[in-house]
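forwarding from the other thread:

> can someone predict this with magnesium ion?

sure thing
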Amino acid sequence: MNVIELSKVGKIFRTDEVETLALENVNMSVEEGEFLAVMGPSGCGKSTLLNIMGMLDRPTSGTVTVCGVKAGELSDARMAEFRNKTIGFVFQSFHLILSLNVIENVEMPLLYAGLSAKERRERAYQVLEQVGMTHRLRHLPSQLSGGQCQRVAIARAIACNPKIILADEPTGNLNSEMAADVMNILMRLNSEEQRTIVMVTHNEQQAALAHRTARFFDGHQVG
Ligand code: ADP
Ligand code: MG
């Protein structure tokens, strides 16, 4: 079964002066349980692709279907609700809330999902255990290493138990040791928990750990 299907997807960013073609005629599907790497030079449309797959953005043309649900048929509010329970995002620069401590950051999506305070605390602790971060519950992001920040961000991404994890250069800001750590966690979430993963990377060795690599150039899939 395909959990993500893109059909003839195009994305043009328009400002008053310029039009940027970020994606053109992208046809792509990702199977349930697959670990897909996405590669390509800077500016070729990788982040745009992930944002569209993850319903953070809408395409200019074409259709996006995630777990059988067509993005084009959802209002922005419904799309956000669907995204919250179906997809977890991991970003290069972590995107943690700097004024909240570790466990509060992880509880945030659970608050939107409507869990009680007690349920939020329990679930956040559980996912922080999975990434080995229960020894830093009250630390602020500024008191953590980059690798630790990313582990917390991964815990936050899986808090609502999403089927899909979309990771945009998750190791881009990490040294090789921390990067290996993050890769091991992602691979475990894929192989042991059957979560589908799409990961943008510039690292061929990391891409080789995925099941398949999609290569992009100038808004087109080239391999
Ligand atoms: P990548 O992640 O592969 O580096 P992006 O998907 O971020 O590439 O960007 C693809 C192209 O779209 C680039 O030319 C970029 O400048 C442009 N772009 C991305 N986001 C916007 C935006 N919000 N407004 C205008 N242009 C954008
Ligand atoms: Mg990018």
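The pocket of adenosine-5'-diphosphate (ligand 1) is lined by residues 13, 20, 22, 40, 42-48 (CB under 6 Å). thats all i got for now
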